[in-house]
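Case study B.
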Amino acid sequence: MSVNLSEESAQVSAFELKGSTFTLPLLKLLVPDMELVSGQLAHKVEQAPDFFRNTPVIIDLQSLASGDTGVDFPLLVGLLRGYGMLPIGVRGGNRSQNDAAHAMELAILADGRPPKPERSSRSETTQESVVVNAAAPVVGAEAGSRMITRPVRSGQRVYAPVGDLVILSQVSSGAEVLAAGNIHVYGALRGRALAGVKGNRECRIFCHDLQAELVSVAGNYRISEHIEDSKRGKPVQIYLKDDALIIDEL
Amino acid sequence: MTRIIVVTSGKGGVGKTTTSAAVAMGLAQRGHRTVVIDFDVGLRNIDLIMGCERRVVYDFINVINGEANINQAMIRDKRCNDLYILPTSQTKDKEALTKKGVGKVLDELSESFDYIVCDSPAGIEHGAKMAMYFADDAIVVTNPEVSSVRDSDRMLGILASKSRRAENNQEPIKEYLLLTRYSPQRVKQGEMLHVDDVQEILSLHLLGVIPESQAVLSASNAGKPVILDDKSDAGEAYADVVERYLGQELPHRFLEVQRKGLLGRLFGG
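Model:
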């Protein structure tokens, strides 16, 4: 039987593109003075040379992002490489800093992402993501809170990185809504809601009709099975008291 | 202005192809030039349901690949002059569909058709995404059953975010809910979701309810869209659906258990 070779090779994939997560050391730059950096870095490397050899690092510019402080990237990159480190990207920089980094072929990385309920606070994580999450349309996104007016459908994820999240419709089963602040759902909450994702234990979740799959405040979560039947289908607020998640009827 | 309608669902086997055929025939019967396109590459069905499987020479993929022009691939329905069918390939697979290729075909069809009905494959992968990308309207076909409702909800999310209208920040795709295989008897017995429950879970405008009907199987075996069986409940329900889509307000029928009179019970039917 003769095989059509071109047809066969057309069916064999050459590669796969996937999203993946890596834990990498973050060098948070606090001063733009390269001489000072160089001296202190030399000292650190001396203490643990193997830790730094062949290590990819991310440079965090958040402390220097306000104001006009330019960072001498060629010098910094050369310095890091000299110690065996592999600077691969920056985050938290302002426009001109990002442009300078880009010129040195450093990637511009996103500024933090919604963390999962249990995660260690010591190491920073960066995510190489090729898959884009479908997001519900945003209306009136002021600095501080996000407002969503259409239903959040199954499979969608909405994140308010600063402040509250207000949803003027339902959250379907299989959808996720997350906020650094409070979450208000003026409709049925059937999916997952995680408030206070950056650690604020004072945050609350409010909804008109509790049917959630999972609720969480600052990492303390409860799944649907452990939600009392008496609270289902009612308007409630959910908050932390000491370490316990309380569900109160409104 | 041509309207591109995608008939989609997420879940398989809920009645997308049956609906595509019925709605396309219904629109054409009312004088609108309509073409129905099969997007289920490799598992083609529209040609069977429309009864033109013995007349397929070239197909949608041939046109995309430039191997044939659109007039060579389109098949005119024998029963209605305003209805055309564009079947798809059975031997190729979904990778043959490209955004550019599909867009070009739809642009060409928009020059001479009032309605383009895109029959989507099941799932949320490439074929389904290509079918819904260019749509103006979406008929989301759902069975009154939990997994179908959840899959439809997922599909609604994708329609709201991954379509061309969403990407260009234009007015979003107009979404319609079509509940199929509805059995008022089973709803009454508490075995099946009520139409109100489905509407509440999906919060979507109800285009119509098609009752569970034996006419659907008979029609597909005979190769004729069920809307042509105008004595059947499903046929009548689809006629209502087309009228509602075109703007007429009609009450929803077939939601209650039909009480048969004595003669009806004696002679069945």
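Chain A is about 20% helix and 35% strand. The remaining cases will be described in the next quarterly update.
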